[in-house]
UniProtKB/TrEMBL annotation:
The keyword Ubl conjugation does not apply. This is LysR family transcriptional regulator. Residues 8-65 form the HTH lysR-type domain. Belongs to the LysR transcriptional regulatory family. Gene3D superfamilies: Periplasmic binding protein-like II (3.40.190.10), Winged helix-like DNA-binding domain superfamily/Winged helix DNA-binding domain (1.10.10.10). Keywords: DNA-binding, Transcription, Transcription regulation. InterPro entries: LysR-type_TF, LysR_HTH_N, LysR_subst-bd, WH-like_DNA-bd_sf, WH_DNA-bd_sf. The lineage of its organism: Bacteria, Pseudomonadati, Pseudomonadota, Gammaproteobacteria, Pseudomonadales. It comes from Pseudomonas lutea. SUPFAM superfamilies: Periplasmic binding protein-like II, Winged helix' DNA-binding domain.
């Protein structure tokens, strides 16, 4: 009788491994903590399954057949590998880790969320590497589930629904312009705000409206947007080199001494930033370590107020 792996009783393989080591049914039964008749019965089933006597009577116990000799090492290796696979996952040691982390992050997420964590990542896990990628939101779920990405930092409104998520920060918008800008010498009215020349960040560099314009439209107002750039770093650079102003996420304006920063003259809805990852990595110790490190670092800086003038 021949058994397919699908119908295999793994307990029989454990018995065979011990029998091939002990070459004695009584000793094997003792090692397995089973009754001798039970082991004898299992040996009979193994003989039927493998179509071989496996162990034959000898002058000093039982002698393995040639088939049994061939089975001994691969069987022992397979059982050891199975035991390792099913054993508890080892704790993650960042000092010894050699991972390459692949994280999807926009320039905002990079500046506001990754840079505050970078020093700690490098000092705690010095042999790891970090690759930051700017990904299209529609590709996030597929890239995370396929292994092309390990983690994504993204806004709640565009988060794919099937991914695990963790809230990091709620971001608000501030008005910024170059230090010494004449518009900031006195209190800025809503009308004066609309009359200024504005710059805007649009991911493709072609849009001229955003949440600020929606908030103004609700009041029956509009502003003058004259520059559209594809990322926040370009937007901040434009402010420092012109009389343009812009409504910018607060965390992008930290450590920008060349800019004047103040609250805009009307409420503008902010946004929530999330950490996203696939189910396959949810319980992975290394991935859990990275998630916790970023989240704790971001949280520790979340309540640091930005200096306004």
């Amino acid at each position: 009788m021949h058994y397919s792996l699908r119908h295999l009783d793994l307990n029989l393989l454990l018995t065979l491994d011990v029998l091939l080591t002990e070459q004695n049914v009584t000793r094997a039964a003792r090692v397995l903590n089973l009754a001798q008749p039970t082991v004898s019965l299992q040996l009979g089933r193994l003989r039927d399954m493998l179509d071989d006597p496996l162990l034959l009577p000898g002058p000093r116990g039982m002698l393995p057949t040639e088939r049994a000799r061939e089975l001994r090492k691969p069987l022992s290796d397979a059982l050891a590998a199975l035991g390792n696979a099913l054993s508890p996952v080892e704790t993650f040691d960042p000092a010894c880790a050699t991972h390459t982390w692949r994280v999807a992050a926009s320039d905002y997420a990079t500046t506001a969320l990754v840079w505050p964590s970078l020093r700690l990542i490098r000092s705690t896990a010095p042999n790891t590497r970090l690759a930051l990628l700017n990904k299209n939101p529609v590709d996030l779920a597929g890239d995370l589930e396929s292994g092309r990405l390990d983690l994504a930092l993204h806004i709640r409104g565009e988060a794919p629904p099937k991914l695990r998520q963790r809230s990091l920060v709620h971001e608000r918008y501030m008005l910024a312009g170059r230090r010494g800008h004449p518009a900031f010498k006195s209190k800025l009215t809503l009308k004066a705000f609309c009359d200024l020349e504005h710059a805007i960040m649009s991911p493709n560099g072609a849009g001229f409206a955003a949440s600020t314009d929606q908030a103004l439209a609700a009041e029956g107002l509009a502003r003058k947007v004259v520059l559209s750039v594809p990322n926040f770093n370009s937007l901040i650079s434009a402010l420092a080199h012109s009389d343009l102003v812009a409504v910018v996420p607060e965390r992008m304006l930290r450590d920008q001494p060349s800019l004047h920063v103040q609250a805009p003259p009307l409420p503008i809805p902010g946004f929530d930033m999330l950490m996203l990852w696939p189910e396959r990595l949810h319980r992975d110790p290394a991935h859990m370590w990275l998630r916790d490190l970023i989240a704790s670092t971001v949280q520790s800086t979340a309540d640091v107020p930005i200096r306004t003038q």
